[in-house]
Write a structure and sequence with these properties.
globular, alpha/beta, binds 4'-phosphopantetheine, five-stranded parallel β-sheet
Length: about 160
């Protein structure tokens, strides 16, 4: 038996941004172990493969000893049960996130009432960022250096060169 407090930071991370990274870093200050779980969002079409996303997240979180990055093909709550998670951590950017997040939290609570979902307010500098906006700007050659780490910027440039 251990008293370790375990968190899961789930998302589609297509790709990871400074906004996600901020939430992961702050989760590391509170929890002993933080799983970053790459899951499927059935309403989104992916640009990066799950393997590419794992590599990119691992690359930008290598300074965080508590983090383990794992891809999971299934329900978030099943992943949480497998790793013995105490909490699911999500970032909240603005009121517009609220309705979707409430649905997610309520459904996950219905599936397993022992696992709490907790929200961290996104740093103001990143509250306008989304992976979709980053992809849109990168696609047309716009400046994204303030919103994604250099590794991600390079990966996006490479991806759009291929297309
Ligand atoms: O970064 P996103 O796209 O907002 O993350 C959404 C995600 C991937 C966490 C959500 O779609 C998810 O949990 N997918 C896995 C399947 C699942 O458990 N769906 C929610 C049931 S309420």
């Amino acid at each position: 038996m251990t008293n370790q407090k375990i968190a899961v930071v789930p998302g589609s991370f297509d790709p990871i941004t400074y906004g996600h990274l901020d939430i992961i870093e702050r989760a590391c200050k509170i929890f002993d172990k933080v799983y970053v779980s790459v899951l499927r969002n059935s309403s989104k079409k992916g640009l990066f493969s799950p393997e590419e996303r794992i590599d990119l997240i691992s690359g930008v979180t290598k300074h965080l000893d508590k983090v383990e990055v794992i891809q999971f093909d299934g329900l978030l709550i099943d992943f949480c049960q497998q790793v013995g998670a105490d909490a699911i951590i999500r970032g909240l950017r603005a009121v517009s996130d609220f309705e979707y997040e409430m649905q997610l939290t309520s459904m996950n609570r219905k599936l397993d009432s022992h696992i709490e979902t907790m929200y961290i307010m996104t740093n103001n500098n990143y509250s306008f960022i989304s992976s979709s906006i980053v992809k849109e700007v990168a696609k047309y050659g716009g400046k994204i250096e303030d919103i994604v780490p250099p590794l991600i910027e390079d990966a996006l440039k490479e991806k759009f060169k291929e297309q």
